[in-house]
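fyi for ur records
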Amino acid sequence: MKATPMQTEARREPVADALALRPLSRALGAEIHAADLTFPLEGPAFERIRRALDEADGLLVLHDVQMTPGQHIELARRFGPIERHAAEGFAHPDHPEILVVSNIMKKGRPIGAIYAGQYWHSDMSYVSRPPMQSLLYALQLPGIGGDTMFANMYRAYEALSGPMKRFLGAVEAVHDYSHAYDTYFNRLKERPPLTPELRAKVPPVRHPVVRTHPVTGRKSLFVSPGFTTGFVGMPAEESGPILEFLFGHSVRPEFIYRHRWRMRDLVIWDNSCTLHLATADYDLSTPRRLHRVTVAGGVPR
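which gave:
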């Protein structure tokens, strides 16, 4: 069978050597310039990106990526199986693996998840096997604002005292999808309450407060104000103050990188060791559209 131009390009292994990483901040993250992702990444090229993600504490930014929805999905699949979002109404009409994040309205309804992620969270931590990587691709952006902030949960854990580390290492926390709706979306008409069917589809789950990364072996905090509601076996008056401390501690300035989006940026992050927040500091009448694919993960340990 004759190779297609795309398949021919995919065999250019020297791309791996051409990926020059530059740190984004002292907190976390690295960026790659001139990374041509218009073809399937295979072999050394993809493995370099996978390693770079771990080396950068779970955050990688690739600029000026020319990529179709199909190629977006294919790249995500190289990390692992795709994890679809529970809210199927926000899926791409032709590619259900893609979650559309957008404020654009069509026939009186948003075409994607409007106001998505405007609170600190780890993507879909409310499922029993939370996603590992997320790949978010920018297609339409406001002229000003709309940044995304990322926090390093390795460093947040490492900065805790010894007694606090020992305590947190012995407890689990409850993660609940409905918490975001009840807390952050309850006054937004564009994000109506969760239906009983969807609540039943995504019941609360329990995860360790401190998890160990399956590749790096490093420990990180795994709680967020977006989805974490309390500690297992502890009343709210006990767990509440500790969680509030952790929520504030996790997003100290020295742990944060703020990403200012450019058109066709592809941002890849590791949900097991980072939190992120979408800022709402832009004119919501200005179109903003991004595509996200998430990669399935394992049971947090």
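The radius of gyration is 19 Å. thats all i got for now
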